[in-house]
Write a structure and sequence with these properties.
It is found in: Nucleus. The protein is mainly α and 169 residues long. It has four helices and no strands. α1 packs antiparallel against α2.
């Protein structure tokens, strides 16, 4: 059953007057009521709870925010079937979940790569240290051999001189 647009306009006007009264704007409420001729329309005030206009506006803002988050552009959620809205929300949640999983996988992969790089660098440091220690050891051995050779050469020279001195004397 289609609603008479006059009824919905009158209802909105009443809600505005009610809001003005609840907010303490009695003169504005009276002037608006007089201009809109609201007192000629039968409205059961007891059936409309306080704060109704604010609640309706808040719901409208939530719908608008939801539309923006779902990225629907010009399609309006208020004109959609509840099943369509639920499906849209479900799809959006799945999309967000998939994006988060992908991001988490990328973070895990990056962490693994950093750990692998750190292990490689640590291994390289150890190998470098081992190579340096081996070179130092080789240098010490060479130095020791050089000293032994020099000592042996010195001993041989003394022996030769002694032998020359004995044969020459």
């Amino acid at each position: 059953m289609a609603r008479n647009p006059m009824e919905s306009n009158d209802e909105l006007n009443y809600l505005v007057i009610r809001y003005l009264q609840e907010s303490g704007f009695t003169n504005a409420a009276f002037a608006f009521g007089h201009e809109s001729r609201i007192n000629r329309i039968p409205i059961e005030e007891d059936l409309i709870p306080p704060g109704t206009l604010v609640a309706i506006v808040q719901k409208g803002l939530l719908y608008t925010e939801l539309e923006e988050k779902l990225g629907n552009g010009n399609s309006y959620l208020m004109t959609k079937n509840i099943n369509e809205v639920q499906q849209m929300i479900k799809e959006k949640k799945e999309k967000i979940k998939n994006e988060q999983e992908k991001e988490n996988n990328n973070k895990r992969e990056s962490k693994r790569e950093r750990q692998d790089t750190d292990r490689e660098q640590e291994k390289d440091k150890k190998m470098k240290k081992v190579n340096e220690e081996e070179k130092e050891k080789e240098m010490q051995q060479q130095e020791h051999q050089d000293k032994d050779i020099a000592k042996n050469h010195g001993d041989m020279t003394k022996a030769k001189l002694s032998a020359d001195g004995v044969s020459g004397g």
